[in-house]
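Build the 3D complex.
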Amino acid sequence: MSPTRLMKTRPSAPALSCQDIRVSFRDHEVVCGVDLELGAGDWLGIIGPNGAGKSTLLRSIVGLTDHLGTVSLGDGGVPRAADVALVPQFPVLPKGMTVAEYVLLGRTAHLGWLARESQVDRQIVSSVLHRLDLSAFADRFVSTLSGGEAQQVVVARALAQQCPVLLLDEPTSALDVGHQVSVLELVDDLRRSEGLSVLAAMHDLSAAGRFADRLILIDHGRIVAQGSPEAVLQSDLLSAVYGTPLTVQSIDGELVVLPAPRRRVHSQKEIS
Amino acid sequence: MAEASYPTTALTDSDSAHPAVRRAFGLSVTATLIGLVILFAVGLLSATSGAAGLPVKGVFASLFGWIPLLGVESTLSATQESILFEIRLPRLVLGMLVGGSLGVAGAAYQGVFRNPLADPYLLGVSAGAGFGAVLALGFGLDLGWGPFDTVPAAAFIGALVAVLASMAIARGGGASPATLLLGGVAMAALFSAAQTYAIQQLDENRAREVLSWLFGQLNTTGWKQIWLLLPYAAVCGAVLFVHRRHLDVLRVGDDEARSLGLDPVRSRLTVIVAASLLTAAAVSVSGLIAFVGLVVPHIVRLLISHSYRVIVPLSALVGAAFLAFVDIGARTLLAPSELPVGILTAFVGAPFFGLVLWRDRWSTT
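Done.
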Protein backbone atom coordinates (compact mmCIF):
# COMPACT_ATOMS: atom_id res chain seq x y z
CA MET A 1 0.00 0.00 0.00
CA SER A 2 1.40 3.36 -0.99
CA PRO A 3 1.79 6.18 1.55
CA THR A 4 -0.86 8.25 -0.24
CA ARG A 5 -3.40 5.49 0.25
CA LEU A 6 -2.56 5.36 3.89
CA MET A 7 -3.06 9.09 4.09
CA LYS A 8 -6.42 8.77 2.41
CA THR A 9 -7.91 5.92 4.32
CA ARG A 10 -6.42 6.50 7.75
CA PRO A 11 -6.35 10.14 8.70
CA SER A 12 -6.25 10.61 12.43
CA ALA A 13 -9.53 12.53 12.85
CA PRO A 14 -12.76 10.64 13.52
CA ALA A 15 -15.33 10.78 10.72
CA LEU A 16 -18.26 10.67 13.12
CA SER A 17 -18.66 10.69 16.84
CA CYS A 18 -21.63 10.31 19.13
CA GLN A 19 -21.79 11.33 22.76
CA ASP A 20 -24.35 10.01 25.17
CA ILE A 21 -27.06 9.19 22.62
CA ARG A 22 -30.37 8.51 24.33
CA VAL A 23 -33.64 7.63 22.65
CA SER A 24 -36.92 7.02 24.44
CA PHE A 25 -40.23 5.88 23.08
CA ARG A 26 -42.86 7.08 25.53
CA ASP A 27 -41.35 6.15 28.89
CA HIS A 28 -39.21 3.32 27.62
CA GLU A 29 -35.56 4.14 26.97
CA VAL A 30 -34.32 2.02 24.04
CA VAL A 31 -30.91 3.63 23.62
CA CYS A 32 -29.41 4.51 26.98
CA GLY A 33 -26.36 6.70 26.61
CA VAL A 34 -24.23 5.35 23.78
CA ASP A 35 -20.84 6.88 22.95
CA LEU A 36 -19.09 5.86 19.81
CA GLU A 37 -16.38 7.09 17.54
CA LEU A 38 -16.00 6.09 13.91
CA GLY A 39 -12.50 6.66 12.54
CA ALA A 40 -12.21 7.89 8.97
CA GLY A 41 -11.93 4.89 6.66
CA ASP A 42 -12.91 2.47 9.39
CA TRP A 43 -15.63 -0.15 9.47
CA LEU A 44 -17.36 -0.18 12.81
CA GLY A 45 -19.81 -3.04 13.33
CA ILE A 46 -22.72 -2.81 15.74
CA ILE A 47 -23.92 -6.18 16.95
CA GLY A 48 -26.53 -7.24 19.44
CA PRO A 49 -29.78 -9.14 19.64
CA ASN A 50 -33.06 -8.02 18.09
CA GLY A 51 -34.44 -5.03 19.94
CA ALA A 52 -31.08 -4.07 21.40
CA GLY A 53 -31.38 -0.61 19.82
CA LYS A 54 -29.07 -0.97 16.81
CA SER A 55 -31.48 0.39 14.20
CA THR A 56 -32.69 3.12 16.53
CA LEU A 57 -29.11 4.22 17.10
CA LEU A 58 -28.50 4.45 13.36
CA ARG A 59 -31.77 6.29 12.81
CA SER A 60 -30.92 8.81 15.50
CA ILE A 61 -27.55 9.49 13.88
CA VAL A 62 -29.26 10.53 10.62
CA GLY A 63 -31.90 12.48 12.51
CA LEU A 64 -34.88 10.23 11.82
CA THR A 65 -35.57 9.77 15.53
CA ASP A 66 -35.68 12.39 18.26
CA HIS A 67 -32.76 11.84 20.60
CA LEU A 68 -30.69 13.40 23.32
CA GLY A 69 -26.92 13.69 23.12
CA THR A 70 -24.80 14.95 20.28
CA VAL A 71 -23.80 13.57 16.93
CA SER A 72 -20.95 15.38 15.25
CA LEU A 73 -18.79 15.00 12.20
CA GLY A 74 -15.03 15.01 12.16
CA ASP A 75 -15.06 18.78 11.61
CA GLY A 76 -17.49 19.27 14.47
CA GLY A 77 -20.52 19.96 12.27
CA VAL A 78 -23.91 18.38 12.62
CA PRO A 79 -24.36 15.65 10.01
CA ARG A 80 -26.75 16.32 7.15
CA ALA A 81 -27.88 14.19 4.22
CA ALA A 82 -24.82 15.26 2.24
CA ASP A 83 -22.56 13.88 4.99
CA VAL A 84 -24.14 10.63 6.13
CA ALA A 85 -25.97 8.19 3.88
CA LEU A 86 -28.22 5.49 5.30
CA VAL A 87 -28.96 2.18 3.63
CA PRO A 88 -32.23 1.24 5.34
CA GLN A 89 -33.08 -2.26 6.44
CA PHE A 90 -36.33 -2.34 4.48
CA PRO A 91 -35.97 0.12 1.62
CA VAL A 92 -39.12 1.23 -0.20
CA LEU A 93 -38.90 0.31 -3.88
CA PRO A 94 -41.64 2.32 -5.62
CA LYS A 95 -43.63 0.77 -8.42
CA GLY A 96 -42.70 2.02 -11.86
CA MET A 97 -39.43 3.70 -10.80
CA THR A 98 -36.38 2.77 -12.87
CA VAL A 99 -33.00 1.98 -11.35
CA ALA A 100 -31.58 5.16 -12.90
CA GLU A 101 -34.37 7.29 -11.40
CA TYR A 102 -33.90 5.61 -8.03
CA VAL A 103 -30.15 6.21 -7.91
CA LEU A 104 -30.72 9.80 -9.03
CA LEU A 105 -32.71 10.33 -5.81
CA GLY A 106 -29.36 10.13 -4.03
CA ARG A 107 -28.54 13.56 -5.43
CA THR A 108 -31.40 15.25 -3.55
CA ALA A 109 -29.22 16.82 -0.88
CA HIS A 110 -26.92 18.33 -3.49
CA LEU A 111 -29.58 20.18 -5.49
CA GLY A 112 -30.49 23.83 -5.33
CA TRP A 113 -33.96 25.16 -4.57
CA LEU A 114 -35.10 24.60 -8.15
CA ALA A 115 -34.34 20.91 -7.53
CA ARG A 116 -32.86 20.40 -10.97
CA GLU A 117 -30.07 17.95 -11.56
CA SER A 118 -27.04 19.17 -13.44
CA GLN A 119 -24.67 17.43 -15.84
CA VAL A 120 -22.49 16.66 -12.85
CA ASP A 121 -25.33 14.86 -11.10
CA ARG A 122 -26.06 12.65 -14.09
CA GLN A 123 -22.39 11.96 -14.52
CA ILE A 124 -22.07 10.88 -10.91
CA VAL A 125 -25.08 8.59 -11.18
CA SER A 126 -23.72 7.08 -14.39
CA SER A 127 -20.37 6.31 -12.85
CA VAL A 128 -21.93 4.88 -9.72
CA LEU A 129 -24.04 2.56 -11.90
CA HIS A 130 -20.93 1.65 -13.83
CA ARG A 131 -18.89 1.14 -10.69
CA LEU A 132 -21.42 -1.32 -9.27
CA ASP A 133 -21.93 -3.09 -12.62
CA LEU A 134 -25.53 -1.92 -12.70
CA SER A 135 -25.43 -0.22 -16.10
CA ALA A 136 -27.33 -3.09 -17.68
CA PHE A 137 -30.04 -2.70 -15.03
CA ALA A 138 -30.46 1.05 -15.39
CA ASP A 139 -33.78 0.80 -17.24
CA ARG A 140 -35.27 -1.96 -15.08
CA PHE A 141 -37.97 -1.12 -12.56
CA VAL A 142 -36.66 -1.34 -8.99
CA SER A 143 -39.78 -3.22 -7.92
CA THR A 144 -38.88 -6.08 -10.28
CA LEU A 145 -35.35 -6.67 -8.96
CA SER A 146 -34.30 -9.68 -6.91
CA GLY A 147 -33.25 -9.15 -3.31
CA GLY A 148 -29.53 -9.05 -4.08
CA GLU A 149 -29.93 -6.71 -7.04
CA ALA A 150 -32.19 -4.41 -5.04
CA GLN A 151 -29.66 -4.21 -2.22
CA GLN A 152 -26.95 -3.20 -4.70
CA VAL A 153 -29.21 -0.51 -6.10
CA VAL A 154 -29.87 0.88 -2.63
CA VAL A 155 -26.12 0.93 -2.00
CA ALA A 156 -25.73 2.71 -5.35
CA ARG A 157 -28.18 5.39 -4.25
CA ALA A 158 -26.25 5.84 -1.02
CA LEU A 159 -23.02 6.21 -3.02
CA ALA A 160 -24.66 8.81 -5.27
CA GLN A 161 -25.18 10.84 -2.10
CA GLN A 162 -21.38 11.15 -2.03
CA CYS A 163 -21.23 11.05 1.72
CA PRO A 164 -18.00 10.29 3.53
CA VAL A 165 -19.94 8.20 6.06
CA LEU A 166 -22.11 5.23 5.11
CA LEU A 167 -24.56 3.72 7.59
CA LEU A 168 -25.86 0.23 6.86
CA ASP A 169 -28.82 -1.21 8.74
CA GLU A 170 -28.72 -4.99 8.50
CA PRO A 171 -27.60 -4.79 4.89
CA THR A 172 -27.70 -8.52 4.26
CA SER A 173 -30.49 -9.91 6.39
CA ALA A 174 -32.74 -10.63 3.39
CA LEU A 175 -30.06 -12.18 1.20
CA ASP A 176 -28.78 -15.67 0.57
CA VAL A 177 -25.25 -16.44 1.70
CA GLY A 178 -23.68 -15.74 -1.70
CA HIS A 179 -25.28 -12.31 -1.99
CA GLN A 180 -24.51 -11.57 1.65
CA VAL A 181 -20.83 -11.95 0.95
CA SER A 182 -20.92 -10.08 -2.33
CA VAL A 183 -22.76 -7.06 -0.89
CA LEU A 184 -20.38 -6.86 2.05
CA GLU A 185 -17.35 -7.31 -0.24
CA LEU A 186 -18.73 -4.51 -2.38
CA VAL A 187 -19.04 -2.18 0.60
CA ASP A 188 -15.56 -3.16 1.74
CA ASP A 189 -14.13 -2.46 -1.73
CA LEU A 190 -15.81 0.91 -1.80
CA ARG A 191 -14.58 1.71 1.65
CA ARG A 192 -11.01 1.08 0.56
CA SER A 193 -11.23 2.70 -2.87
CA GLU A 194 -13.33 5.73 -1.93
CA GLY A 195 -12.13 6.19 1.62
CA LEU A 196 -15.62 5.79 3.08
CA SER A 197 -16.23 5.22 6.75
CA VAL A 198 -18.77 2.49 7.44
CA LEU A 199 -21.02 2.04 10.43
CA ALA A 200 -23.05 -1.14 10.06
CA ALA A 201 -25.62 -2.85 12.24
CA MET A 202 -25.09 -6.54 11.58
CA HIS A 203 -26.89 -9.72 12.51
CA ASP A 204 -24.35 -12.12 11.09
CA LEU A 205 -21.67 -12.23 13.77
CA SER A 206 -19.15 -14.10 11.64
CA ALA A 207 -19.50 -11.54 8.85
CA ALA A 208 -19.22 -8.77 11.42
CA GLY A 209 -15.97 -10.26 12.68
CA ARG A 210 -14.69 -10.67 9.17
CA PHE A 211 -15.43 -7.20 7.78
CA ALA A 212 -15.38 -4.81 10.70
CA ASP A 213 -12.22 -3.30 12.15
CA ARG A 214 -13.92 -2.83 15.46
CA LEU A 215 -17.15 -4.08 16.99
CA ILE A 216 -19.60 -2.65 19.46
CA LEU A 217 -21.86 -5.10 21.26
CA ILE A 218 -25.14 -3.56 22.39
CA ASP A 219 -27.73 -5.04 24.70
CA HIS A 220 -30.83 -3.28 26.01
CA GLY A 221 -29.60 0.01 24.60
CA ARG A 222 -26.22 -0.09 26.34
CA ILE A 223 -22.77 -0.89 25.07
CA VAL A 224 -21.66 -4.06 26.86
CA ALA A 225 -18.40 -4.62 25.00
CA GLN A 226 -16.32 -2.96 22.35
CA GLY A 227 -12.98 -3.42 20.70
CA SER A 228 -11.39 -5.62 18.07
CA PRO A 229 -13.42 -8.57 16.76
CA GLU A 230 -11.18 -10.91 18.72
CA ALA A 231 -11.93 -9.04 21.93
CA VAL A 232 -15.69 -8.83 21.45
CA LEU A 233 -16.46 -12.18 19.88
CA GLN A 234 -16.07 -14.23 23.07
CA SER A 235 -18.33 -17.21 23.45
CA ASP A 236 -19.33 -16.62 27.07
CA LEU A 237 -20.04 -12.93 26.46
CA LEU A 238 -22.09 -13.59 23.33
CA SER A 239 -23.91 -16.49 24.95
CA ALA A 240 -24.96 -14.28 27.82
CA VAL A 241 -26.13 -11.41 25.61
CA TYR A 242 -27.94 -13.53 23.02
CA GLY A 243 -29.37 -15.86 25.63
CA THR A 244 -28.31 -19.05 23.92
CA PRO A 245 -25.07 -21.06 24.02
CA LEU A 246 -22.72 -19.91 21.26
CA THR A 247 -19.25 -21.04 20.33
CA VAL A 248 -16.56 -19.03 18.62
CA GLN A 249 -14.10 -20.93 16.50
CA SER A 250 -11.15 -19.74 14.54
CA ILE A 251 -11.00 -21.23 11.06
CA ASP A 252 -7.97 -20.23 9.00
CA GLY A 253 -7.55 -17.17 11.17
CA GLU A 254 -11.15 -16.01 10.83
CA LEU A 255 -13.63 -16.07 13.65
CA VAL A 256 -16.80 -18.06 13.12
CA VAL A 257 -19.67 -17.79 15.55
CA LEU A 258 -21.96 -20.79 15.72
CA PRO A 259 -24.68 -22.01 18.00
CA ALA A 260 -23.24 -24.53 20.41
CA PRO A 261 -23.73 -28.10 19.12
CA ARG A 262 -27.03 -29.59 20.10
CA ARG A 263 -26.93 -32.79 22.01
CA ARG A 264 -28.52 -35.08 19.49
CA VAL A 265 -30.30 -38.17 20.60
CA HIS A 266 -29.44 -40.92 18.17
CA SER A 267 -30.91 -44.34 18.21
CA GLN A 268 -28.54 -47.24 18.46
CA LYS A 269 -29.47 -48.37 14.99
CA GLU A 270 -28.38 -45.13 13.31
CA ILE A 271 -25.00 -45.13 14.95
CA SER A 272 -24.23 -48.72 14.06
CA MET B 1 -5.80 -2.20 -5.87
CA ALA B 2 -8.11 -0.43 -8.27
CA GLU B 3 -7.79 3.31 -8.45
CA ALA B 4 -10.63 5.36 -7.06
CA SER B 5 -13.29 5.73 -9.69
CA TYR B 6 -15.34 8.20 -7.74
CA PRO B 7 -16.45 10.81 -10.19
CA THR B 8 -15.83 14.00 -8.29
CA THR B 9 -13.37 15.67 -10.59
CA ALA B 10 -12.90 14.11 -13.99
CA LEU B 11 -16.03 15.31 -15.75
CA THR B 12 -14.63 16.28 -19.09
CA ASP B 13 -16.73 14.03 -21.26
CA SER B 14 -20.07 15.77 -20.87
CA ASP B 15 -22.21 13.35 -22.83
CA SER B 16 -21.08 10.02 -21.46
CA ALA B 17 -24.03 9.76 -19.04
CA HIS B 18 -25.86 6.49 -19.28
CA PRO B 19 -28.90 6.78 -21.60
CA ALA B 20 -31.22 5.57 -18.84
CA VAL B 21 -29.87 8.31 -16.58
CA ARG B 22 -30.51 10.86 -19.29
CA ARG B 23 -34.05 9.54 -19.65
CA ALA B 24 -34.61 9.65 -15.90
CA PHE B 25 -33.34 13.19 -15.91
CA GLY B 26 -36.09 15.00 -17.71
CA LEU B 27 -39.22 15.15 -19.72
CA SER B 28 -39.54 13.18 -22.92
CA VAL B 29 -39.38 15.62 -25.83
CA THR B 30 -41.46 13.36 -28.04
CA ALA B 31 -44.24 13.04 -25.48
CA THR B 32 -44.30 16.80 -24.92
CA LEU B 33 -44.45 17.51 -28.64
CA ILE B 34 -47.26 15.01 -29.17
CA GLY B 35 -49.12 16.60 -26.26
CA LEU B 36 -48.70 20.08 -27.73
CA VAL B 37 -49.86 18.94 -31.17
CA ILE B 38 -52.96 17.29 -29.68
CA LEU B 39 -53.67 20.42 -27.63
CA PHE B 40 -53.35 22.60 -30.74
CA ALA B 41 -55.59 20.30 -32.80
CA VAL B 42 -58.25 20.30 -30.08
CA GLY B 43 -58.02 24.08 -29.94
CA LEU B 44 -58.51 24.41 -33.67
CA LEU B 45 -61.43 21.98 -33.66
CA SER B 46 -63.03 23.86 -30.81
CA ALA B 47 -62.54 27.27 -32.40
CA THR B 48 -64.11 26.19 -35.68
CA SER B 49 -67.02 24.06 -34.48
CA GLY B 50 -70.32 25.34 -33.15
CA ALA B 51 -73.57 26.87 -34.29
CA ALA B 52 -71.79 29.38 -36.49
CA GLY B 53 -69.11 27.47 -38.41
CA LEU B 54 -65.88 29.38 -38.76
CA PRO B 55 -63.47 28.54 -41.61
CA VAL B 56 -60.16 27.05 -40.46
CA LYS B 57 -58.16 29.30 -42.78
CA GLY B 58 -59.96 32.37 -41.55
CA VAL B 59 -59.30 31.47 -37.89
CA PHE B 60 -55.61 31.00 -38.65
CA ALA B 61 -55.41 34.28 -40.53
CA SER B 62 -57.24 36.11 -37.79
CA LEU B 63 -54.96 34.72 -35.07
CA PHE B 64 -51.78 35.45 -37.00
CA GLY B 65 -53.14 38.92 -37.71
CA TRP B 66 -52.49 39.67 -34.02
CA ILE B 67 -48.79 39.04 -34.40
CA PRO B 68 -47.18 42.27 -35.56
CA LEU B 69 -44.81 42.40 -38.56
CA LEU B 70 -46.29 39.26 -40.12
CA GLY B 71 -48.60 41.27 -42.33
CA VAL B 72 -51.41 38.70 -42.22
CA GLU B 73 -54.90 40.15 -42.77
CA SER B 74 -57.93 38.50 -41.21
CA THR B 75 -60.42 37.16 -43.73
CA LEU B 76 -63.24 36.80 -41.21
CA SER B 77 -66.23 39.11 -41.17
CA ALA B 78 -66.72 41.42 -38.21
CA THR B 79 -69.41 39.11 -36.79
CA GLN B 80 -67.17 36.08 -37.18
CA GLU B 81 -64.33 37.99 -35.53
CA SER B 82 -66.44 38.80 -32.54
CA ILE B 83 -67.72 35.20 -32.29
CA LEU B 84 -64.12 34.01 -32.34
CA PHE B 85 -62.67 36.50 -29.88
CA GLU B 86 -65.57 37.08 -27.55
CA ILE B 87 -67.22 33.66 -27.42
CA ARG B 88 -65.15 30.79 -28.77
CA LEU B 89 -61.63 31.66 -27.69
CA PRO B 90 -62.43 32.77 -24.13
CA ARG B 91 -64.34 29.56 -23.54
CA LEU B 92 -61.60 27.48 -25.15
CA VAL B 93 -58.85 29.15 -23.16
CA LEU B 94 -60.83 28.86 -19.94
CA GLY B 95 -61.42 25.17 -20.61
CA MET B 96 -57.72 24.63 -21.18
CA LEU B 97 -56.76 26.58 -18.06
CA VAL B 98 -59.27 24.77 -15.86
CA GLY B 99 -58.42 21.37 -17.33
CA GLY B 100 -54.69 21.98 -16.99
CA SER B 101 -55.10 23.25 -13.43
CA LEU B 102 -57.15 20.24 -12.36
CA GLY B 103 -54.70 17.87 -14.07
CA VAL B 104 -51.68 19.37 -12.30
CA ALA B 105 -53.46 19.62 -8.96
CA GLY B 106 -54.55 15.98 -9.26
CA ALA B 107 -51.00 14.88 -10.02
CA ALA B 108 -49.74 16.85 -7.02
CA TYR B 109 -52.34 15.36 -4.66
CA GLN B 110 -51.62 11.82 -5.85
CA GLY B 111 -47.94 12.50 -5.24
CA VAL B 112 -48.16 13.90 -1.72
CA PHE B 113 -50.74 11.38 -0.55
CA ARG B 114 -49.02 8.48 -2.29
CA ASN B 115 -52.52 7.37 -3.09
CA PRO B 116 -53.85 6.56 -6.56
CA LEU B 117 -57.37 7.54 -5.54
CA ALA B 118 -56.38 11.07 -4.54
CA ASP B 119 -57.92 13.86 -6.58
CA PRO B 120 -57.97 17.66 -6.24
CA TYR B 121 -61.22 17.52 -4.26
CA LEU B 122 -59.75 15.22 -1.63
CA LEU B 123 -59.40 17.79 1.15
CA GLY B 124 -62.95 19.05 0.83
CA VAL B 125 -62.38 21.70 -1.86
CA SER B 126 -65.48 20.61 -3.78
CA ALA B 127 -67.78 20.45 -0.79
CA GLY B 128 -66.51 23.75 0.58
CA ALA B 129 -66.79 25.50 -2.77
CA GLY B 130 -70.24 24.00 -3.30
CA PHE B 131 -71.43 25.20 0.07
CA GLY B 132 -70.09 28.69 -0.61
CA ALA B 133 -71.74 28.77 -4.03
CA VAL B 134 -75.05 27.57 -2.60
CA LEU B 135 -75.01 30.35 -0.04
CA ALA B 136 -74.20 32.93 -2.69
CA LEU B 137 -76.57 31.67 -5.39
CA GLY B 138 -79.42 30.58 -3.22
CA PHE B 139 -79.49 33.09 -0.44
CA GLY B 140 -78.31 36.15 -2.27
CA LEU B 141 -75.28 36.52 -0.05
CA ASP B 142 -73.28 39.33 -1.56
CA LEU B 143 -69.55 38.73 -1.47
CA GLY B 144 -68.74 40.53 -4.73
CA TRP B 145 -65.78 42.84 -4.45
CA GLY B 146 -63.98 44.68 -7.23
CA PRO B 147 -63.47 42.27 -10.12
CA PHE B 148 -64.65 39.28 -8.10
CA ASP B 149 -68.24 38.20 -8.65
CA THR B 150 -70.26 36.89 -5.76
CA VAL B 151 -70.41 33.22 -6.71
CA PRO B 152 -66.73 32.72 -7.56
CA ALA B 153 -65.72 34.63 -4.47
CA ALA B 154 -68.02 32.58 -2.24
CA ALA B 155 -66.88 29.31 -3.83
CA PHE B 156 -63.23 30.25 -3.48
CA ILE B 157 -63.63 31.19 0.17
CA GLY B 158 -65.66 28.06 0.90
CA ALA B 159 -63.01 25.87 -0.72
CA LEU B 160 -60.19 27.43 1.23
CA VAL B 161 -62.10 27.22 4.52
CA ALA B 162 -62.67 23.50 3.95
CA VAL B 163 -59.02 22.80 3.08
CA LEU B 164 -57.72 24.82 6.00
CA ALA B 165 -60.14 23.06 8.34
CA SER B 166 -58.97 19.66 7.04
CA MET B 167 -55.36 20.62 7.58
CA ALA B 168 -56.10 22.08 10.99
CA ILE B 169 -57.78 18.97 12.36
CA ALA B 170 -55.10 16.74 10.80
CA ARG B 171 -52.31 18.79 12.30
CA GLY B 172 -53.45 17.58 15.69
CA GLY B 173 -52.81 14.06 14.46
CA GLY B 174 -49.31 14.83 13.23
CA ALA B 175 -50.12 15.69 9.60
CA SER B 176 -49.10 12.39 8.09
CA PRO B 177 -50.66 11.76 4.67
CA ALA B 178 -53.15 9.32 6.15
CA THR B 179 -54.26 11.76 8.87
CA LEU B 180 -54.64 14.58 6.34
CA LEU B 181 -56.69 12.33 4.12
CA LEU B 182 -58.99 11.45 6.98
CA GLY B 183 -59.27 15.13 7.90
CA GLY B 184 -60.29 15.81 4.30
CA VAL B 185 -62.90 13.07 4.37
CA ALA B 186 -64.37 14.49 7.57
CA MET B 187 -64.51 18.06 6.25
CA ALA B 188 -65.94 16.96 2.90
CA ALA B 189 -68.70 15.09 4.73
CA LEU B 190 -69.44 18.07 6.94
CA PHE B 191 -69.61 20.60 4.09
CA SER B 192 -71.58 18.23 1.86
CA ALA B 193 -74.17 17.84 4.58
CA ALA B 194 -74.36 21.60 5.04
CA GLN B 195 -74.66 22.07 1.27
CA THR B 196 -77.42 19.48 0.93
CA TYR B 197 -79.35 21.03 3.78
CA ALA B 198 -78.97 24.49 2.24
CA ILE B 199 -80.21 23.29 -1.17
CA GLN B 200 -83.25 21.70 0.50
CA GLN B 201 -84.24 25.09 1.84
CA LEU B 202 -84.27 26.67 -1.63
CA ASP B 203 -87.19 26.99 -4.03
CA GLU B 204 -87.12 24.94 -7.21
CA ASN B 205 -85.66 27.51 -9.60
CA ARG B 206 -82.86 28.51 -7.33
CA ALA B 207 -82.11 24.87 -6.54
CA ARG B 208 -81.83 24.15 -10.26
CA GLU B 209 -79.46 27.06 -10.72
CA VAL B 210 -77.33 25.77 -7.86
CA LEU B 211 -77.28 22.25 -9.27
CA SER B 212 -76.19 23.43 -12.70
CA TRP B 213 -73.31 25.26 -11.04
CA LEU B 214 -72.39 22.12 -9.09
CA PHE B 215 -72.26 20.04 -12.28
CA GLY B 216 -69.65 22.35 -13.69
CA GLN B 217 -69.84 24.66 -16.67
CA LEU B 218 -67.55 26.77 -18.77
CA ASN B 219 -69.92 29.63 -19.54
CA THR B 220 -67.81 32.67 -20.01
CA THR B 221 -68.51 36.33 -20.16
CA GLY B 222 -65.61 37.48 -22.30
CA TRP B 223 -62.16 37.06 -20.84
CA LYS B 224 -63.04 37.95 -17.27
CA GLN B 225 -62.81 34.47 -15.67
CA ILE B 226 -59.54 33.89 -17.43
CA TRP B 227 -57.94 36.93 -15.85
CA LEU B 228 -59.22 35.73 -12.48
CA LEU B 229 -57.78 32.24 -12.85
CA LEU B 230 -54.56 33.07 -14.69
CA PRO B 231 -52.53 34.42 -11.73
CA TYR B 232 -53.27 31.31 -9.67
CA ALA B 233 -52.52 29.03 -12.60
CA ALA B 234 -49.21 30.81 -13.21
CA VAL B 235 -47.97 31.00 -9.61
CA CYS B 236 -49.30 27.69 -8.28
CA GLY B 237 -48.40 25.93 -11.52
CA ALA B 238 -44.82 27.19 -11.21
CA VAL B 239 -44.59 26.09 -7.57
CA LEU B 240 -45.87 22.61 -8.42
CA PHE B 241 -43.55 22.39 -11.41
CA VAL B 242 -40.55 23.16 -9.22
CA HIS B 243 -41.70 20.59 -6.65
CA ARG B 244 -42.22 17.77 -9.13
CA ARG B 245 -38.90 16.21 -8.15
CA HIS B 246 -39.82 16.39 -4.47
CA LEU B 247 -42.84 14.25 -5.32
CA ASP B 248 -40.49 11.63 -6.77
CA VAL B 249 -38.41 11.68 -3.59
CA LEU B 250 -41.55 11.31 -1.47
CA ARG B 251 -42.33 8.07 -3.30
CA VAL B 252 -39.78 6.28 -1.11
CA GLY B 253 -41.57 7.36 2.05
CA ASP B 254 -40.99 10.08 4.63
CA ASP B 255 -38.08 8.45 6.47
CA GLU B 256 -36.00 7.75 3.40
CA ALA B 257 -36.89 11.13 1.91
CA ARG B 258 -35.58 12.79 5.06
CA SER B 259 -32.39 10.73 5.04
CA LEU B 260 -31.92 11.78 1.40
CA GLY B 261 -32.07 15.42 2.46
CA LEU B 262 -35.69 16.41 1.84
CA ASP B 263 -37.97 17.82 4.52
CA PRO B 264 -41.08 15.77 3.72
CA VAL B 265 -43.48 17.76 5.89
CA ARG B 266 -42.50 21.10 4.42
CA SER B 267 -42.57 19.81 0.84
CA ARG B 268 -45.94 18.22 1.39
CA LEU B 269 -47.44 21.36 2.90
CA THR B 270 -46.09 23.56 0.10
CA VAL B 271 -47.50 21.25 -2.54
CA ILE B 272 -50.87 20.90 -0.82
CA VAL B 273 -51.25 24.66 -0.39
CA ALA B 274 -50.35 25.35 -4.02
CA ALA B 275 -52.56 22.57 -5.39
CA SER B 276 -55.49 23.57 -3.17
CA LEU B 277 -55.29 27.25 -4.14
CA LEU B 278 -55.15 26.24 -7.78
CA THR B 279 -58.14 23.92 -7.41
CA ALA B 280 -60.13 26.50 -5.48
CA ALA B 281 -59.48 29.08 -8.19
CA ALA B 282 -60.46 26.66 -10.96
CA VAL B 283 -63.60 25.56 -9.13
CA SER B 284 -64.64 29.14 -8.43
CA VAL B 285 -64.83 29.97 -12.16
CA SER B 286 -66.06 26.65 -13.52
CA GLY B 287 -67.96 24.79 -10.81
CA LEU B 288 -67.21 21.19 -9.99
CA ILE B 289 -65.77 19.39 -12.96
CA ALA B 290 -65.42 15.76 -12.03
CA PHE B 291 -62.88 13.19 -13.01
CA VAL B 292 -60.25 15.33 -14.78
CA GLY B 293 -57.97 15.65 -11.77
CA LEU B 294 -58.29 11.98 -10.91
CA VAL B 295 -57.88 10.42 -14.31
CA VAL B 296 -55.52 12.66 -16.26
CA PRO B 297 -52.44 11.93 -14.10
CA HIS B 298 -53.21 8.21 -14.32
CA ILE B 299 -53.41 8.37 -18.10
CA VAL B 300 -49.98 10.02 -18.23
CA ARG B 301 -48.63 7.51 -15.72
CA LEU B 302 -49.93 4.49 -17.57
CA LEU B 303 -48.99 5.68 -21.03
CA ILE B 304 -45.66 7.42 -20.44
CA SER B 305 -43.97 7.33 -17.04
CA HIS B 306 -44.44 6.92 -13.30
CA SER B 307 -42.05 9.78 -12.62
CA TYR B 308 -43.59 13.02 -11.39
CA ARG B 309 -41.00 14.88 -13.42
CA VAL B 310 -43.11 13.76 -16.36
CA ILE B 311 -46.53 13.43 -14.76
CA VAL B 312 -46.77 17.01 -13.44
CA PRO B 313 -46.08 18.92 -16.67
CA LEU B 314 -47.83 16.45 -18.96
CA SER B 315 -50.92 16.36 -16.76
CA ALA B 316 -51.27 20.08 -17.46
CA LEU B 317 -51.13 19.46 -21.21
CA VAL B 318 -53.36 16.41 -21.21
CA GLY B 319 -55.85 17.97 -18.77
CA ALA B 320 -56.08 21.09 -20.93
CA ALA B 321 -56.63 19.09 -24.12
CA PHE B 322 -59.08 16.72 -22.45
CA LEU B 323 -61.36 19.38 -20.99
CA ALA B 324 -61.25 21.52 -24.13
CA PHE B 325 -62.17 18.47 -26.20
CA VAL B 326 -65.03 17.38 -23.95
CA ASP B 327 -66.35 20.94 -23.89
CA ILE B 328 -66.79 20.85 -27.67
CA GLY B 329 -69.27 18.05 -27.07
CA ALA B 330 -70.90 19.91 -24.19
CA ARG B 331 -71.54 22.88 -26.48
CA THR B 332 -72.57 21.08 -29.66
CA LEU B 333 -74.14 17.69 -28.86
CA LEU B 334 -77.51 19.05 -27.72
CA ALA B 335 -77.25 22.49 -29.36
CA PRO B 336 -78.79 24.96 -28.83
CA SER B 337 -78.99 23.77 -25.23
CA GLU B 338 -75.89 22.74 -23.32
CA LEU B 339 -74.77 19.65 -21.47
CA PRO B 340 -73.00 20.33 -18.16
CA VAL B 341 -69.36 19.70 -19.00
CA GLY B 342 -68.71 18.15 -15.58
CA ILE B 343 -71.13 15.36 -16.40
CA LEU B 344 -69.69 14.82 -19.84
CA THR B 345 -66.10 14.57 -18.52
CA ALA B 346 -67.15 11.54 -16.52
CA PHE B 347 -69.10 10.06 -19.45
CA VAL B 348 -66.12 10.39 -21.78
CA GLY B 349 -63.38 9.90 -19.20
CA ALA B 350 -64.56 6.72 -17.50
CA PRO B 351 -64.64 4.49 -20.61
CA PHE B 352 -61.40 5.96 -21.88
CA PHE B 353 -59.74 5.34 -18.55
CA GLY B 354 -61.06 1.79 -18.58
CA LEU B 355 -59.48 1.31 -21.97
CA VAL B 356 -56.10 2.59 -20.74
CA LEU B 357 -56.25 0.35 -17.66
CA TRP B 358 -57.16 -2.63 -19.78
CA ARG B 359 -54.34 -1.93 -22.20
CA ASP B 360 -51.92 -1.59 -19.30
CA ARG B 361 -52.92 -4.95 -17.90
CA TRP B 362 -52.58 -6.42 -21.37
CA SER B 363 -49.07 -5.09 -21.85
CA THR B 364 -47.66 -6.02 -18.46
CA THR B 365 -48.87 -9.58 -18.22
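Chain A has one domain: 3-271.
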